[in-house]
């Protein structure tokens, strides 16, 4: 199902491997690691981002989340949005990754639980 959900601000699933008890998902490679690394990582990995670029990252992330909530079939909630799950491509465009805690919800659901899930 993850491989069929496509949006410019979602990480693309390339493939998977199942061998015995081991499960591996292979995603596209994103050159600039995560937003957490760019903003908070070791000094050699940090990047000074202009406020306009930071705003673009916020808007791209919001666009990806809006797609998941409103336009994806089936609709889903990520439930673990944080800086380390926002990956950045070569031009610092954001792509949401790590759907391990994502939850599907049917069309007839009119609200989403705010119960805490994922990283505090």
Automatic annotation (TrEMBL):
GO MF annotations in UniProt: ATP binding; protein serine/threonine kinase activity; protein tyrosine kinase activity
InterPro entries xref list: CR_Ser/Thr_kinase, Kinase-like_dom_sf, Prot_kinase_dom, Ser-Thr/Tyr_kinase_cat_dom, Ser/Thr_kinase_AS, Tyr_kinase_cat_dom
EC number(s) reported in the record: 2.7.11.1
UniProt keyword list: ATP-binding, Kinase, Nucleotide-binding, Serine/threonine-protein kinase, Transferase
Domain Protein kinase, chain residue ranges per copy: 1-120
Protein name: non-specific serine/threonine protein kinase
PANTHER family in the cross-refs: CYSTEINE-RICH RECEPTOR-LIKE PROTEIN KINASE 3
């Amino acid at each position: 199902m993850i491989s069929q959900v496509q949006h410019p601000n979602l990480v693309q699933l390339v493939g998977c491997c199942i061998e015995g008890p081991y499960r591996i998902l292979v995603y596209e490679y994103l050159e600039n690691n995560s937003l957490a690394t760019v903003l908070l990582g070791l000094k050699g990995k940090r990047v000074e981002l202009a406020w306009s670029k930071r705003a673009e990252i916020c808007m791209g992330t919001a666009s990806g989340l809006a797609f998941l909530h409103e336009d994806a079939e089936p609709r889903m909630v990520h439930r673990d949005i944080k800086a380390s799950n926002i990956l950045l491509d070569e031009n610092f465009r954001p792509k949401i990754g790590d759907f391990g805690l994502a939850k599907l919800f049917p069309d007839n659901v009119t609200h989403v639980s705010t119960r805490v899930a994922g990283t505090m």
